[in-house]
Amino acid sequence: MVYVKWAFWGTVWLIVGAFFHYTLPQHDIVRIVNTYEERQELGDWTRIFWSTPDDQSTALINRDVQFIQAVTPEGKAKVYRNEDTGWHWPPYFKFDTANLYTEANDAKSTKDNPEWYSVTHYGWRNEYWSVFPNAVGLKRVDGPDATIIPWLNIIILTLFFALIWAIWVRWRRFRAKRIDPMLEGIEDSWDDSMDTLAEKRGRVRRWLDSWKSKK
Prior knowledge:
Transmembrane segments: 7-24, 148-169
Helix content: 40-55%
Strand order of the largest sheet: 3-2-1-4-5
Oligomer: single chain
Low-confidence stretches: none
Protein name: DUF1523 domain-containing protein
InterPro entries: Phage_phiNM3_A0EWY4
Structural class: alpha+beta
Number of domains: 2
Organism: Thalassovita litoralis
Radius of gyration: 31 Å
Keywords: Membrane, Transmembrane, Transmembrane helix
């Protein structure tokens, strides 16, 4: 049971970690190299990795999507989709796809004369499933070594773990006051029942032995 318990809680925390890693904003320091628009097929289950800014988009099987191509200081390629999130999840309330596309076009630079930007995005990149992170913001930085402190992530995770801690403390108190005494009462009743049963068995055995001795 110990292994089952650890496997269960390990799975729960893995799902929670994956949820936050996908949803919370991340920041990449990159050089913008290109932007383009391409029609994308929305698969049955991979649809969850594409935005649904309105009710009509849920019925589409394909649509035109804007992309932003970039390169990290280490030379690694980065590709972001540029889609509105609307009022849907995750709650970035992004409605400025056209503005961001214009900013990205204006931010293009070459390897010989680079300009560095911090791209704020959420989501994952998977080449096999054609999954792209969604860019939600673009900001000019001083250089490739710029440091971006994720204050929003720190606040959200702090509040989340504070909530988990509060729930855990209250559960421990509730268990100590209500559940543990009840379980102890059941255990004591069980022990008393076993003692009574053992005593009755002893009496019956002594009575049978007494009859055997008379014979």
